[in-house]
Design brief:
Blueprint (H helix, E strand, L loop, with lengths): L1 H22 L10 E6 L5 E6 L2 H12 L7 E7 L12 E2 L5 E3 L10 H6 L4 E2 L2 E3 L2 E2 L5 E6 L3
Parallel strand pairs: 6-7
Antiparallel strand pairs: 1-2, 1-9, 3-4, 3-5, 3-8
Length: 145
């Protein structure tokens, strides 16, 4: 039974990856990057760089209360430290970040859990390096580092 569940999870992650890839056209407009702090159930903080003008506006709308739709962040992680997010050994690849309302369980993990299991990411844990922390929420916009 666990093998079947794992296969379903991997297939679900592949479907999510296909949606993510289709949702981010190669010709997407790039804006001056904007930086936001997000948190999760652990109350740890994680800095996210956004480059798509629509995503930047959506993040600002969430913070101002203009919307409460799609409040959580997802995207593909890069297993390297980013200069703007030095506390963690990974970061969201900015061109893959988007927002969601609900997502599949296979990509859910807390900020510190990803850090603690980063060597396993991309396999059964966070297949395709897609991370969708269910309890993620933006805290504020910060100045460029």
């Amino acid at each position: 039974m666990p093998s079947i569940i794992r296969k379903i999870g991997v297939m679900s992650a592949a479907a999510a990856l296909a949606v993510l890839t289709a949702a981010a056209p190669a010709t997407a407009l790039q804006a001056t990057p904007a930086y936001f702090t997000m948190t999760d159930i652990t109350r740890e903080q994680f800095v996210v760089q956004l480059t798509d003008p629509a995503d930047i506006q959506h993040a600002r709308d969430l913070l101002s209360g203009a919307t409460d739709e799609r409040p959580h962040l997802y995207g593909r992680i890069d297993k390297r430290t980013a200069s703007y997010n030095p506390r963690w050994s990974y970061h969201f690849r900015p061109e893959t970040v988007d927002f969601f309302e609900v997502a599949i369980e296979v990509c859910d993990a807390s900020i510190p859990y990803v850090e603690d299991h980063l060597d396993e990411a991309g396999g059964a844990f966070l297949p395709g390096l897609i991370w969708c922390p269910w309890s993620s929420r933006l805290v504020n916009e910060i100045s460029a580092p």
